[in-house]
Amino acid sequence: MSDALQKAKEEVLWGCRLMVERGYLLGTVGNLSARADGTDLVVITPTSLPYDTMTEDDLVVVNLNGEIVSGKHQPSIECSMHLGVYWARPELRALVHTHSKYATTVSLIKGLDIMPAIDTEQSLYLGGDINIVPFAFPGSKELAEYVKDGIGTTAGLLMANHGALGVGISMKDAVIASDIIERNSEMYLLLKAGGFDYKPMTEDYKVFVKEKSKKKRQVISA
Questions:
Q1: Are 176 and 17 spatial neighbours (Cβ–Cβ below 8 Å)?
Q2: Can you tell me the distance from the alpha carbon of 88 to that of 218, in angstroms, rounded to the nearest whole number?
Q3: Could you say which DSSP state residue 216 is in?
Q4: CA–CA separation, 199 and 2 (whole Å)
Q5: Alpha helices of 23-119 — where are they, by DSSP H?
Q6: Is the pLDDT of residue 221 over 50?
Q7: Torsion of CA 185, 106, 158, 15, to 10 degrees
Q8: pTM summary value
Q9: Tell me, what's the pLDDT at 189?
Q10: Which CATH architecture has domain 3-216?
């Protein structure tokens, strides 16, 4: 096994443990993946296995065409969604899909198709507002297409009635994006629950954060 592939496996397990600790992954819901540097190989969590007992031996390795390279289990049903994002954003090295409480709640709001990044640091890290893509069956080709088209240049998105996706140039980057999406969602819901609206960012700051976030995640070895 190459060093890059071993590192990707370790990052996925690390991300799983962290997401379980935060309460973003319960039972078998959600999925994580990491792309091995300099290869077309992606390590992804298996379908229908609990995260709190998952081991390196449970992880599945696929190539960018979705073919299983190694593993004793089937990959997550959202494998095509992960691969679509890696094709769309070749600089990315990790994806974290969670069903975290506040982000998922925002995804349920009728008529809302964008979740605004409502403070400066969150705007800067996420790259601005993030899309809420339409509902489609989990694991479907339709959902994979919605996500691939909706990710843009941001650090994540929400899937209607489903959950959140954080992306990054490392697992740490994707985990932080997931944390920020959850925090931003909580703040948004607190404002709405209090009957308040948020103060929108200025247009020049929106342009600034998009460029800053894009530069942060410049294309690395694809």
A1: no
A2: 13
A3: H
A4: 49
A5: 79-88, 101-107
A6: no
A7: 50
A8: 0.93
A9: 98
A10: 3-Layer(aba) Sandwich (3.40)
